[in-house]
């Protein structure tokens, strides 16, 4: 299991030992670099899923 989290309230990477409330976190991630890219990764995945939904519905 990863030990890094991205805090959406503070926009900071946190480690497992000092993490904030779960409601503010994305993760866990396996590395600090992955956690730093959390928002970008979430955006990319959402865009891909939206594209797949449009294709499934015949809109693309």
UniProtKB/TrEMBL annotation:
Q: Which domain of life is it from?
A: Bacteria
Q: Where is this region: Disordered?
A: 15-60
Record key words, sorted: Aminopeptidase, Hydrolase, Protease
Q: Which GO terms describe its molecular function?
A: aminopeptidase activity
Basic and acidic residues: which segments have biased composition? 31-54
Q: What is this protein called?
A: Methionine aminopeptidase
The top of its lineage is: Bacteria, Bacillati, Actinomycetota, Actinomycetes, Kineosporiales
